[in-house]
Write a structure and sequence with these properties.
CATH superfamily: Acetylglutamate kinase-like
Largest sheet: 8 strands, mixed
CATH architecture: 3-Layer(aba) Sandwich
Strand order of the largest sheet: 3-4-2-1-5-7-8-6
Distance between the termini: 15 Å
Bound molecules: glutamic acid
Shape: globular
CATH class: Alpha Beta
Radius of gyration: 17 Å
Number of strands: 8
Oligomer: single chain
Amino acid sequence: MAEYKRIVVKVGTSTLTYGNGKLNLSGIERLSMVLSDVANQNIDVVLVTSGAIGVGMSKLGFNEKPVDIAMKQALAAIGQGILMQIYEKMFSEYGRIVAQILITKEDIFLEDRSMNAINTFNALFRHKVIPIVNENDTIATDEIKIGDNDVLSAYVAKLIKADFLIILSDIDGLYDRNPALEGAKLIKRVYSIDDEINSIAEDTASILGTGGMRTKINAARIAMENNILMSIVNGSRPDNIYDILSGREVGTLFIPDKGNRKG
Ligand code: GLU
C-alpha cells in the first residue's frame, strides 16, 4: 500500500442509500473506517461523494426525482448538509477531521480558481484532513455542470495529482456485455479506451443506475490521459479498497500506458 501517496475514492448514491432512499449507515460507517485507516498509513485521501439530491429527497419525502432544475438544486442544498453531518460523525469516530469542498467546472478549468482549489486541498492534506467533495449543485445548472461525479472525481484526481482513483459502484466492475445476460464476463484489466470498450459502455449505459458505465469510462479516459490508475469496484464492500491498494485483483483496473506512467 505504501506505493500510493494520494488517492481519490468516489462513492455514488446507490452505495450510500438503500432503494427506499434512506441512508445505508453501516455502509457509510465501514467506508469511513476504511478511508480513515488508509489515511493512517500516510496516504492522502479524498472522498468524492454523491447523494445530496437523494438525501434531500428522502428528507422532504419525495419518491421521485423532480424534473425542475431549481427543485433538484434545492434538494441538493438540503441533502448536502445532512450528508456532511453523517460523514463528520462517522469519521470523527475514527479520529479523522473532514472538510467540505463544493466545486464547479470553472473551478477546475480556470487557472486562478484551480490554483486556489489546489492550495486548499494541499493545506488540508498538511493537516491530515480528509476533503469530501461534491459538485456545487446550487450554482451549476445543466449547461455548465460536469454533471456526474464519476467525471468530477477524475478531474479532482487530475487536479491534486492523485496516483489512484477508485470508483465504488453498485456492480463488480466493467463487464464485456450487459451483466444481466448469461455468460457476461468481468473485464479485469483495461489498457486503453478503444472502440470495443466504448461500445460496451454504450450498451450498458442505460441499465446501470445513475451514471452507468459510460460516465465511468469517461472518467477512466481522463484518469489514463493523466497517468492515474483507476479502478471500478463494488462499493457494497468498502474493504475492496484494501484489496485494490494491496494489488489484489478485484473489479476492473484501468492501467495507463506504461510508457507514460510515473515510477
Ligand atoms: N451532485 C449530485 C448529488 O450529490 C450527484 C451527481 C451524481 O450522481 O453523479 O446528488
